[in-house]
Design a protein that fits this description.
Layout lengths: L7 E7 L3 H12 L4 E4 L13 E2 L1 H9 L3 H5 L4 E10 L2 E12 L2 H14 L3 E3 L2 E9 L3 E7 L8 E10 L24 E7 L10 E7 L2 E8 L3 E8 L1 H7 L2 H11 L14 E5 L8 E2 L2 E3 L14 H11 L1 H9 L4 H28 L2 H13 L1 H12 L4 H16 L16 H9 L5
Parallel strand pairs: 1-2, 1-9, 2-6, 4-11, 9-16
Antiparallel strand pairs: 3-5, 4-5, 7-8, 8-9, 10-13, 10-14, 11-12, 12-13, 15-16
Helix pairs in contact: 1-4, 1-7, 2-7, 2-12, 5-6, 10-11
Bound molecules: flavin-adenine dinucleotide.
Flavin-adenine dinucleotide (FAD) binds next to helix 1, strand 7, strand 10, strand 13 and helix 7.
Length: about 425
């Protein structure tokens, strides 16, 4: 993929996961000229349990992208199967959807392109440290042979580049510290798995040093995603062996094909007090600090953040003010602070064998209690408020209150909006 042809953009969005694609689309719908880049070639796989929660699906519906995801023939999820050395529970859950990240993320990118976003895959972005009247981003083509980077200027930048936010490597204030003992992620897919694995069920196997989620996605592919203590991986010698050890400990049938699968790993999953904004820069999704994935809400959080940042981003495009850094920090804390803490507490609990067996027994004795717990876990507080505000804001921006451009034939938004923003830029 070629680097973009233009050096000036209203917004550059780094990372085409759910946070980046949705944020880019919503901003383009308000008339901004948006460039979306991802260092990977699309479709790309991503380590993830691949499960959209009921709240996440409602949010996708509210922003008008649900039908594209539904069309992927993902698998409706209706049951959670929790398995550990002392519990074996099957609990009904609010209806979710299992769909591969390769397919779902490609659809979200497609929606962004249709809204006028210019998408450049295979392009790695690095945000430059200084910012005056624009933010400068260096783009490096990942295609062999394309050597010289290109600099682009943007009114605002969204860093939605996932765990570790590599695009911010030159900004010392964004250096992240992983939480001690935080798990790492691991994942693979296979078509060769035991018949005991049921379609429409999330199989969650809990061990002392990690947990593994198994779910069948479209085309009868088994998606395997795990959070593992680094010490377990070291001890077992590979990601595949570590996952097999967790399955064995939980009394789950072995999956021999895991030994030959293509495994990928992530850095530590949980970050300490991450910074989420700087001048003309907003950090979204996992890049803004992920917690461990047991409750499977990461994609919903990513989309929530992409929606919540819109009013601020539109104001920043009209006129940047330093207090916007504080505003975005406060919004993130309000939306995710307690949820992150809850996830960390749960992750801590899962490391205590006595607690796991106690909770397992309790839930096993009361199917009603178990179904209520799963129901609570399947709902993401805050999505209702986002949906309500979206109804107003989307309508507001479509009425032209924010920006005035419309998509053009070339896949970018029309020159009008960009020119008007850029011509309003203060000199310097
Ligand atoms: C083991 C595991 C299981 C999980 N299970 C679930 C689940 O079942 N349900 C759920 O909702 N969530 C789950 N999650 C969490 C979910 O995967 C993330 O929260 C979600 O992907 C975050 O989306 P994002 O858009 O912030 O980032 P990502 O989806 O990570 O996208 C970031 C993108 O940025 C790109 N990028 C990175 N650096 C650069 C750069 N310098 N320049 C350009 N592009 C760059 C990457 O290629 C990537 O495409 C799980 C996570 C893990 C680790």
């Amino acid at each position: 993929m070629k680097l973009p042809e233009l050096p000036y953009w209203d917004a550059v969005v780094i990372g085409a996961g759910p946070a980046g694609s949705v944020a880019a689309r919503l901003l383009a719908q308000s008339g901004a000229r948006v460039l979306l880049v991802d260092r990977k070639r699309f479709p790309r796989q991503k380590i993830c349990g691949a499960c959209w929660s009921a709240s996440g699906l409602e949010l996708l519906e509210a922003i008008g992208v649900r039908s594209g995801i539904d069309a992927l023939a993902g698998i409706k999820l209706r049951q959670l199967h929790l398995r550990s050395s002392c519990a074996n529970l099957r609990v009904p859950m609010p209806e979710g959807l299992a769909v591969s990240r390769a397919a779902a993320d490609t659809v979200l990118v497609q929606y962004a392109i249709e809204a006028g976003v210019r998408f450049c895959p295979n392009v790695r972005a690095v945000v430059e440290p200084t910012s005056e009247n624009t933010r400068r981003v260096r783009l490096h083509s990942e295609c062999p042979g394309d050597l010289s980077p290109m600099g682009v200027e943007a009114g605002i930048v969204f860093a939605a580049d996932g765990l570790g936010h590599s695009s911010l490597c030159e900004l010392p204030e964004f250096e992240q510290q992983a939480v001690k003992d935080s798990h790492i992620g691991a994942g693979c897919t296979t078509t060769d798995f035991p018949a005991s694995l049921q379609t429409g069920t999330i199989h969650m196997v809990i061990g002392r040093a990690g947990y593994v989620g198994l779910v069948i996605v479209e085309s009868s592919v088994l998606n395997v995603a795990a959070a593992l203590a680094p010490s377990l991986v070291r001890q077992e010698g590979s990601l595949a062996n570590a996952v097999t050890a967790v399955l064995r400990e939980g009394g789950f049938p072995a999956i021999p094909a895991l030994a030959d699968a293509d495994w990928c790993g992530t850095p530590h999953l949980t970050r300490r007090e991450p910074r989420v904004a700087a001048k003309r820069l907003f950090v979204l999704g996992d890049a803004a600090g992920y917690a461990e994935p047991f409750t499977g809400e990461g994609m919903t959080w990513a989309v929530m953040g992409a929606c919540a940042v819109q009013p601020l981003a539109q104001r920043a495009l009209r006129s940047w003010h330093p207090k916007m850094i504080w505003e975005w920090t406060a919004i993130c804390r309000r939306m995710f602070g307690r949820r992150h803490l809850g996830c960390r507490a749960l992750a801590g609990l899962l490391r205590i064998p006595l607690a796991v067996s106690g909770v397992g027994r309790l839930l096993g004795m009361s199917p009603y209690l178990a179904s209520q717990v799963v129901k609570v876990m399947g709902r993401t507080p805050g999505t209702e408020a986002i949906k309500r505000s979206l109804g107003y804001e989307l309508q507001d921006s479509r009425n032209g209150h924010c920006c005035s451009g419309a998509p053009d034939q070339s896949g970018g938004s029309s020159g009008t909006r960009a020119e008007s923003y850029l011509s309003n830029r203060p000199a310097g």
